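Late entry, zinc ion complex.
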Amino acid sequence: DIPKNKFVVVTGLSGSGKSSLAFDTVFVEGNRRYVEGMSSFARSFLDIAAKPDVDSIENLSPPISIDQKSVIRSPRSTVGTLTEIYDYLRILFANFGESHCPKCNALMNKKSNKDILLEIKKMPPKTMLVIMAPYGKKDKNIIETINQIGQLGYARVRVGEKIMTIPEASNFILNNEVGGEADIVIDRVILDSKDKDEERIMDSIETAMKVGGGSLRLMLDNKEIISYNRDFVCEKCQIKIKEITPRHFSFNNPEGACDECSGLGLKMKISSELVIPNKKLSLAEGAIKPWGSVGGRNGNSGQGMQLLAALSKKLRFSLNVPVNKIPPKKLEIILYGDENYDFGGVIGLMEEKYKSTKSDHTRSEIEKYMVSEICPVCEGKRLKREFLSVLLNGKSIDEWVNMDIDSLAAYLENSKSGQNQNKIIGALTKEIGGRLQILQKVGLGYLSLSRGTQTISGGEAQRIRLATQIKSKLTGIIYVLDEPSIGLHSRDNKRLIETIKSLRDRDNSLIVVEHDRDFIKNSDWVIDMGKGAGEEGGEVIFSGTVERLL
Ligand SMILES: [Zn+2]
Ligand SMILES: [Zn+2]
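Prediction complete; structure with ligand written out below:
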């Protein structure tokens, strides 16, 4: 009998059938019963496990198996996405991050028409206000710009820092060097202390935004100029970011993912070391290894050699000397090509073929010569530059997720006390902080959220799943764990045991396959499986409390 709502450790030598007891028997039986309790409609969507070979197991709760293999491992998932912490960070950054120009780092602001009206209302009475719409482009012809403005029916423009009529402007630009931009004067208002003109000002703001294509300028008392934008804009670099939403911080969404590596942070690249592994061979002796295999049979290698022979005459190198005797600059052209010599390069041609071929065989042949390297565009950060330059507390989302979980938790705690807290930020950071804490409890504080799930160990994967279970606050569940202590330090062992006990205290049953003494000592019930592997195994030789075992 395995007691319910207890912390049960199944121990025994390997091959004694302890994993089989825990996983196959309890898990499969529990799952079957749980499923049988569901409606036939729901059941039809599940793959029902075969009934295990035991007489009877009574009173089973729905089981959740947390073994070391069942974590999704893909280059597109990280500790952050798996634990959903990254989703909360995306919301936080989209709503409260400060956008910076990806080129010059200047802060980018955006304002709604209402925001602008509010700012105007705060200005002192009797302020002389000119509402203007920027028009034309720097590199365009100013004569054309002024003519167009005249045709639109506006009477005044601001050119070269001065406001003038259209005829004055036409005259001015003949004698002065100015760029192709001009501000159209939409309205001129002297602010009244009683806000009488609010409706008129709002109308003018709307018109200016429309004519200015999302930008507006105010001139105050004929001197100060303030620019406003509907989108995030850097006027200096002419860079505009339309919108920033949580999607844009996801490397699994094309809107946010780096275009070069499509969000993987890594790029496959043909390696010259692999293409010419033996530099003591000459080109004529077959130094270029892939030409022996890729398309070798259909004569492509012959074609390649013909191209090289033609190049050798123009570029003046010998096909018969060892490759390491060819000057580096010439070897560079041989590998990567040069338009002046009308040659695509050995590697250049392979890359072209890799992109154009429809044959899986050819593609995998070429992949043998590829190595993956950190994406040169995003530097492994997976996102487009404009979203990496959104900063929260002066750090990008990439910098946040690259901290280890211990540091990130401390950082979050510090930044919380510093700010005058916004309610939503408070709720989000609380959610994130809670999840980080659970990861620390299961001994994963040394991992970073950016860590790819393909590179974590089985024990780490299991503890991440355990952490997500703790968060779910379910009760009446049987958790089956397979040696969760693997790879843990003894200090973290204690925390993990505490965590397991807290799950038990929430009326869950825990069946843990473990050899670790600390686990056995702390358990409520121990099952020792028979010594001797194979045929003799599979027998329960002890089942009872720890006190009775000792
Ligand atoms: Zn800029
Ligand atoms: Zn990239």
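The longest helix spans residues 18-36. Will revisit in the morning.
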